[in-house]
Amino acid sequence: MKQSTPPIEGVRIVLGDRSYDIDIGSALLAGLAAHKALPSGTAALIVTNDTVQPLYEKALVEALAGRYPVVHTVALPDGEEHKNWQTLNLIFDALLTHGCDRKVVLYALGGGVIGDMTGFAAACYMRGVPFVQVPTTLLAQVDSSVGGKTAINHPLGKNMIGAFYQPRLVVCDLATLDTLPARELAAGLAEVIKYGPIADMELFGWLEEHMDALLARERQALAHAVRRSCEIKAAVVGADEREAGLRAILNFGHTFGHAIEAGMGYGVWLHGEGVAAGMVMAAELSRRLGLVDEAFTQRLTRLIARAGLPTRGPVLDAQDNAGRYLELMRVDKKAEGGEIRFVLIDGPGKAIMRTAPDALVREVIAQCCAAA
Amino acid sequence: MKQSTPPIEGVRIVLGDRSYDIDIGSALLAGLAAHKALPSGTAALIVTNDTVQPLYEKALVEALAGRYPVVHTVALPDGEEHKNWQTLNLIFDALLTHGCDRKVVLYALGGGVIGDMTGFAAACYMRGVPFVQVPTTLLAQVDSSVGGKTAINHPLGKNMIGAFYQPRLVVCDLATLDTLPARELAAGLAEVIKYGPIADMELFGWLEEHMDALLARERQALAHAVRRSCEIKAAVVGADEREAGLRAILNFGHTFGHAIEAGMGYGVWLHGEGVAAGMVMAAELSRRLGLVDEAFTQRLTRLIARAGLPTRGPVLDAQDNAGRYLELMRVDKKAEGGEIRFVLIDGPGKAIMRTAPDALVREVIAQCCAAA
Q: Between β-strands B71-76 and B43-49, what pairing exists: parallel, antiparallel or unpaired?
């Protein structure tokens, strides 16, 4: 694929002494050795998975070799179903087996699962060591590697055990997206689409125009989508790092989406796929509450479909599907006192948090699930 | 035992918006319901162990019943050997099974192990919920419940996985010490004694005079020991919350002590017992480096012995005991680049951090271990 090379762009996350840059560009891995923001240390540990390791480990090891006395790697099994304590412990095992001290720097080389686990391991190892995000999936570049949310799953709920812990730097090398499977590219687009309804309908319009270019992985289009997504996320995280309020809007589609992921078994639906179907459901709930019109829900559904993403949720329970969704959603981290707090769209481009009557939610689930 | 009741005393930990009080007094549990600093919430979860549960759970449940819509309890197996991920996960299981949301408040009712695990669970559950320390051992009252260090052990090292996470309140009810086994009372005295050499030889002199009263559990003496210990710890933690420097002096005796605990298998030696023998070793290393004289090391050894604590370390390896100690100490969190950084006494009442030649450390271990 012939590509024009976009220049390196930067977005800054402003959080006092925890501020950091997101670099966006092509072939950044090769230039990383000279980067001023790399934390110094006695050793580096690259955390990756067995899919990404053969593709990019060598380039990152070479880049870091000049900066650290020693560079180790640990490769975890790939997939959301491995985002648990047992896999996290492989990172601690590697750190302790190699005798890594408090001056070790962790590098997360992979997608959202690797980023979330590496960040949480960095937050906990010896009560905190620095880490750098090197996201190699679109989803991680536009969402999960930015903002310091780290976590692992518990069998009873997604991301239930974790920490707010900021990286020192995020390096989004667009060249790494060339090797991304089409299904994962689409899953990443779900999080890009998300930023439209909650914050920026201009981005949404741009996505409607450039969806084909994005699916063809044109660098200039990808660079714009990543940059704009990171800018919106930076503004939200900068205003509310620990999700006291505003930040929760970034979870549009995620309440239904997490239920889908947990209900199907982690790894069966990709996170972005759950979010895609979840956004359609949340939009429909917004419509039934009189917050948006049908033209909006249709427009959103159409764009999600064009990205190659599911627009309907799966049936989680043949007997009482809505009941199962509700049960799973009640353990969502945004729930309070058993009440589910949904992120809804209050007119295109603006998100709000609110509860909804169970009966209405049941109607939405009945309407929006596969076998309905 | 007839007791005069000391008044409630308070020590404040000053850490900006993470500041909190340590209350010290008798029969505080009963009065807890009216305490202004209890965080509000949708539920409380008392985390305790199977030894403490039959003694104090009822009183705490009654105190909290008026403050929370629902009060749950989870009892963990008792002992340092259970301070691991599997046991920690019992807390998460309880939280999720009870449908606890972000507004849950955790109560640590027990000793240092319960406090460390409850604090770490609070730090991680849904990325952070409030918690209160209700320490029921002397060790927890004078040391581990104060300052926000939380952690679990890894088979390759003690407290390797954890977080700096402050409680909202610490309630030291001296009445709970009445039921403490003599061996654990002594283990707590090790941490009280520690504050002398590193910071306050006046306290050390007071301990020499009042050791019998402390061993007899006289409330006035206990109140003074707990308050003075907390004051010293508050000053150190207030100056260096995240152990960038000064705070490490609180680990006097702990480098050798952690090696003893890990080398013997967690739970064989109590933490305070390891620290006691470790302080003798660290003092002897200080003497060999010319930092203190023999009169000081003898005075320290004598007070430790009077508290009923071990003054000699165990043999961890019959072939190469010093080698095994060194191996275990190299994974200490204070180590850097493979160099062990010892907390040493630079004249009574003043601690410093420094490295020491392996040969000298070997001599100290040979001199200070049981079979030497």
A: parallel
pLDDT digits (tens, 9 = 90+) for B232-271: 999 999 999 998 889 999 999 999 999 999 999 988 999 9
Q: Once rounded to an integer, what is the mean pLDDT over residues B49-69?
A: 96
Same domain, B279 and B359: yes
Structure token pair of residue A44: 């580096």
B72 with B220, same domain: the answer is no
Residue in B96, B157, B331 closest to A160 by CB: B96
Residue A336 confidence (pLDDT): 83
* Interchain proximity B101–A149, CB inside 8 Å: no
**With contact defined as beta carbons under 8 Å apart, do B337 and A103 qualify?**
yes
Of B99, B162, B243, the CB nearest to A330: B99
ipTM of the complex: 0.93
Residues in chain A where the model's pLDDT stays below 70: 1-6, 371-372
One-letter amino acid at B5 equals T
Which of B151, B179, B207 delimits the end of a domain?
Answer: B179
Report the CATH number that the domain containing residue B326 is assigned in CATH: 1.20.1090.10
Cα(B251)–Cα(B194) distance, rounded to whole angstroms? 9
* pLDDT above 60 (res B1): no
Contact A184, A111 (CB under 8 A): yes
Average pLDDT, chain B: 95
Specify whether the CB–CB gap between A341 and A334 falls below 8 A. yes
Sequence letter at residue B2: K
Q: How many domains does chain B have?
A: 2
Residue B164 with chain A: CB contacts under 8 Å: 127-128
pLDDT for the residue numbered A372: 42
Q: Which two tokens stand for residue B33?
A: 């319901």
Residues B281 and B331 in one domain: yes
Asked if the structure places residue B161 within a domain, the reply is: yes
The verdict on B158 and B199 lying in the same domain is: no
Select which of A168, A219, A227, A271 is catalytic: A271
Where is the binding site, in residues of B?
78-83, 112-116, 136-137, 149, 158, 176-179, 191, 254, 271
pLDDT tens digit sequence for B339-366: 999 999 999 999 999 999 999 999 999 9
B179 near A CB under 8 A? no
The yes-or-no answer on residue A334 being catalytic is no
Q: For residue B8, is pLDDT > 80?
A: no
Helices B321-329 and B358-368 cross at an angle (nearest 10°) of 120
Segment A61-74, tens digit of pLDDT: 999 998 999 999 99
Tell me whether residue B258 is one of the annotated catalytic residues.
yes
Q: Of these residues, A168, A258, A287, A341, which one is catalytic?
A: A258
The whole domain housing B81 covers 9-179
Helices (H), A177-218: 182-199, 201-215
Is the separation of the CB atoms in B220 and B1 below 8 Å? Answer: no
Q: Can you give the pLDDT at residue B372? A: 42
Q: Mean per-residue pLDDT for B280-284? A: 98
